[in-house]
Amino acid sequence: MFYDHQQIEKKWQKYWEENQTYKTSNNTDKPKFYVLDMFPYPSGAGLHVGHPLGYIASDIYARYKRHQGFNVLHPVGYDSFGLPAEQYAIQTGQHPAVTTEQNINRYEEQLKKIGFSFDWSREVRTSDASYYKWTQWIFIQLYHSWYNKNTDKAESIDSLIQHFEEKGTEGLNANQNDELNFTAEEWKIASDLDKEDILLNYRLSYRAETTVNWCPALGTVLANDEVKDGKSERGGFPVFQKKMMQWSMRISAYSERLLQGLNTLDWPQPLKDSQEYWIGKSQGAQVQFKVEGHDETVEVFTTRPDTIFGATFMVLAPENPLVETITTDAQKVEVDTYIEETSKKTERDRMSDVKNVSGAFTGSYAVNPFSNEKMPIYISDYVLMGYGTGAVMAVPAHDERDHRFAKKFNLEIKKVVETEEDVQEKSFDSKDSVCVNSDFLNGLHYNEAKAKMISEIETKGIGHGTTNYRQRDAIFSRQRYWGEPVPIYYKDGMPYTLPTSALPLELPEVEKYLPTEDGDPPLGNAKEFAWDEANQKVVATDLIDDKTIFPLELSTMPGWAGSSWYFLRYMDPNDEETFVKKELADYWGQVDLYIGGSEHATGHLLYSRFWNMFLKDRGYISHDEPFQKLINQGMILGMSAFVYRIDGTNQYVSKNLAKDYQTQQIHVDVSLLKGTSDELDTEAFKAWRPDYAEAEFILEDGKYITDREVEKMSKSKYNVVNPDDICEEYGADGLRLYEMFLGPLEQSKPWNTQGLSGVYGFLKKFWNLYFNGDVFEVSDEEPTKAEYKVLHTLIKKVVYDIENFSFNTSVSSFMIAVNELQKIKCNKRNILEPLAIIISPYAPHICEELWSLLGNGTSIEFEKFPALNEDYLVEDEIEYPVSVNGKMKFKISLSAQLSAKEVEDLVISNEKMQQILEGNTPKKIIVVPHRIVNIVI
After folding, report:
1. What are the beta bridge partners of residue 417?
2. Over the stretch 35-90, which tens digit does the pLDDT of each residue have?
3. 836-840, long-range: CB within 8 Å, 24+ apart, which pairs?
4. How far, in Å, CA of 789 to CA of 783, rounded?
5. For the chain, how far is it from start to end, CA to CA, in angstroms?
6. Angle at alpha carbon of residue 341, lines to 339 and 345, rounded to 5°
7. CB–CB of 528/549 below 8 Å?
């Protein structure tokens, strides 16, 4: 019977939509299972075949759990704020909302074609005001919270105010920007403005001067992962380090909990390692060094206080405020030039550049508090203001980077840890040796020396032992239009939150999406964007009088804001009273399976964990961690095609002749190749772009053969394969099976459209099991033991594979089972009905159609997954090969229940064996049960 995949798939996609088959109820009687894909950003290019890989895997798992009787939450939505739509708006004037809507419609159309079992009724979009109302609400809760280190959680700012009223800062143990000291009386007499300023020092969302990645061409601050080699990832514009007043989130308060929480999660180890490194916990001491001729001191954090006698110079971050104070007139030009150069590098670039050594001398000296020796103070880009104190004591004998710096600037290298190595030539940084040249530390091992030195530092009153974290607070404002407005207005220069009743604070209309002439963010162009405090509403900007009408915050939230809590909104997407009802958050709990790319390791996944922990602290949800199990899917790679252009000409030489010429390799669109070959359609190439219209070709055997290479699938490499085309030719079920068949989910693998024909052939074979010619024909006759064995072998394998996410081996098992059933001409209902259920998570359309043809009036989706019966896998008979003196002579079928002695007796008495023995007695008989019989004569 002809397998018409197009008609079948359209029919069932329509059925699922009309019947809302995948709509999830909040039925708390059933056990729940929450399966989620990482939030997609709807780009203008739409999906290519690499994008659905993770979605197909999660969809298979979601369908499997429904078959097991779980109430499955498998939602979809869009992380729809983003820079690409804004850049397009700047270029064309088209509102980002229009572009985003078009992109989402395209995405949705493509996703529905692939047959995903998403609950579309729960769809959320971060750029919808009904959604970002709650993102703004969470921001306000963060603003009105502080982190109490004594209770190790976030609490309402009211409890902090109460502490100040009763005790001032006495006994306060809070996460803060600066350590403040005041009495309850001083707090009470402080002005309202001063009180607000003090509270900003403790709030979990706060405004402070921060060093940021500033991109003048884009007019915005960029996150570290949006900058590459000193340029913006989008557009390649120069990026500079700049100090700005910015909103920040106090994620640093959660560093230890974020670190410890990793132990409870079933995540890939490399991903956990990335977060652990990013958080960067280290234990050591905070020490103050006096600066000669100045009142200031340089404070450093060191993990090796045991090496302080070997500290021969100091290095400050170029951004350290002390630099301006202590730089001498003679060194000012050199220092200023160096600071300017450093501003062109991002912190990430500075951290990763371990080979290049550079710096500038400030002209000032610090004094080593233990050796009393003078230490020249330098600045260098390898020291970061955001880590520790923005200053290091350099111990070149025992730190590789300090050693390179000392060699470059000819600074003293002093050995303080015993080693045979020549520390003048190479640093020695082991903790397994003893201290030397270190006065009272001499002869002590690392742990003893560290403890003793910390005690001495505390006795001298110049510091204390401490734990430090590399992780900095997250910058939370962007100078962009297309993002969530920050619900803040300014009164006497101090920030205040809007009342929650005024939310959402909606994005205003603007005439242009660029910064204003005064350098304000794009929201500065809005005519209706001021806060009327008396009437509690947004009014015209020209009414601002700073008495009752005040300016609103002009920055917007970063791209990660909306994606830091979306997994909670899916639980209760249409609630207008709260972001999620507590009872629903308690029912759905953690995401049980989260699938997405590894590129989000230190961005989205950290911020989501932080917001989740905060919301738990404040009692809105009950679970500490958002994502219990996480899988990073690999990439599907594209097969790029290249032509070779002879330098300085418009001539293109075929691949195997290119070695004879000076050429440039150029990507060409894979759609310009003939069929599935490597041959270029030269006429299509000439028509592709105007600059190729006059192209001339040097052919081999009358053909132009392109070069091919496997690389990342991307629009810029012209190697993108559109899933729509695959669905058209091979069907969505073919695409789903093939993507899984390509290899293990976590690995990257190359796409090859030719490979689809094998999977499509399998689908046709599977379809035809249910037909006799063109007639649907399924027998109610009881299956044979052999038929049941094929089915239950498959059940055992598929259950194991799905539960271990080995989807590729399941597809192979389907093929084996269908081949075996075809061979034995099986058309029994008791085999073919469960077979359709087993294959349906992978190929839902064809299985729904077969299920319907089998006479079932409801969807296959909620049918119970077939149970394994191991009895069918027990062999009744074993075919034993019989070897004589190492050569196989014959085979004999015997009952599987026989003992080794019974097998031996039956083999010896066998007629063929008697002929071989010719009356002799065997010297040795070896029976390997259920395997083989070896006889030596």
Report:
1. 435
2. 999 999 998 888 999 999 999 999 999 999 999 999 999 999 999 998 888 888 88
3. 836/860, 837/67, 837/863, 837/864, 837/865, 837/866, 838/794, 838/795, 838/798, 838/814, 838/865, 838/866, 839/766, 839/814, 840/63, 840/67
4. 10
5. 58
6. 105
7. no
Q: Which two tokens stand for residue 733?
A: 């079920």
Cβ 555 vs Cβ 592: under 8 Å: no
What is the Cα–Cα distance from 132 to 474, expressed in whole angstroms?
19
Half-sphere exposure (CA, 13 Å, Cβ side) for 94? 13
The helix (H) or strand (E) run that includes residue 422 is none
> How does strand 205-215 pair with strand 220-222?
antiparallel
Q: How many CB atoms lie within 10 A of CB 121?
A: 12
How far is the C-alpha of 538 from the C-alpha of 264, rounded, in Å? 45
Q: How many CB atoms lie within 10 A of CB 632?
A: 20
pTM above 0.90, yes or no: no
By C-alpha distance, which of 173, 249, 170 is closest to 207? 249
Q: Specify the amino acid at residue 479.
A: Q
Taking the alpha carbons of 518, 524, 525, 527 in that order, is the dihedral positive or negative?
Answer: negative
Question: What's the whole-number average pLDDT of the chain?
Answer: 94
Burial of 184 (0-12, 13-18, 19+ CB in 10 A): middle
Amino acid at 905: D
What is the predicted pLDDT for the residue at 359? 97
Backbone angle region of 883, left / alpha / beta, with phi > 0 → left and psi within -120 to 50 → alpha: beta
User: Reduced to 3 states, what is the DSSP secondary structure of residue 927?
Assistant: strand
Residue pair 516/524 in contact (Cβ under 8 Å)? The answer is yes
The encoded tokens of residue 750 equal 């190359």
Q: 154-169 as b/e, with b when 16 or more CB fall inside 10 Å?
A: bbebeebeebbeeebb
pLDDT per position as a tens digit, 688-720 = 999 899 999 999 999 999 999 999 998 889 999
H-helix or E-strand spanning residue 676: none
Distance in angstroms (rounded) separating the CA atoms of residues 136 and 557: 9
Cα 886–891–892 angle (5° rounding)? Answer: 125
How many helices (H) and strands (E) would you count in the chain? 28, 38
**Alpha helices, DSSP H, located in 708-863:** 723-730, 732-741, 756-768, 785-803, 807-823, 829-839, 844-853
Helix, strand, coil tally for the chain in percent (to 5) = 40, 25, 40
pLDDT 10s digits, 304-315: 999 999 999 999
Task: Please provide residue 936's backbone torsions phi and psi, each rounded to the nearest 5 degrees.
Answer: -115, 125
Measured between alpha carbons, how far is 362 from 395 in angstroms, rounded to an integer? 19
Least trusted range by pLDDT, from 105-119, 230-244, 667-681: 230-244
> In the numeric block, which tokens belong to residue 186?
């001083």
Cβ neighbours, 10 Å, residue 912 = 13
User: From CA 499, how far away is CA 507, in angstroms rounded?
Assistant: 17
Torsion angle of alpha carbons 587, 863, 840, 115, nearest 10°? -50
Q: Which of 487, 494, 498 is nearest to 533 (CA)?
A: 498
Distance separating alpha carbons of residues 405 and 116, to the nearest angstrom: 57
User: What is the spatial distance between Cα 695 and Cα 58, in angstroms, rounded to a whole number?
Assistant: 47
Give Cβ neighbours of residue 555 (< 8 Å, ≥ 6 apart). 246, 247, 477, 478, 479, 480, 486, 521, 523
**Which conformational region is residue 235 in: left (phi greater than 0), alpha (psi within -120 to 50 degrees), or beta?**
left
Report d(CA 490, CA 200) in Å as an integer. 14
Tokens of 13: 């996609």
The Cβ of residue 123 has, within 10 Å, a number of other Cβ atoms equal to 16
DSSP track, 475-512 = E--BS-SSSPBP-EEEETTEEEEPPGGG---PPPP-S-
**CA 752, CA 719: separation in Å to the nearest integer?**
11
CA pair distance 322, 314, nearest whole angstrom: 13
Quick check: 299 and 287 in contact, CB under 8 A? yes
pLDDT digits (tens, 9 = 90+) for 9-25: 999 999 999 999 999 99
How far is it, in rounded angstroms, from Cα 524 to Cα 82? 19
Contacts of residue 671, defined as CB under 8 A and 6 or more positions apart, other chains included, come to none
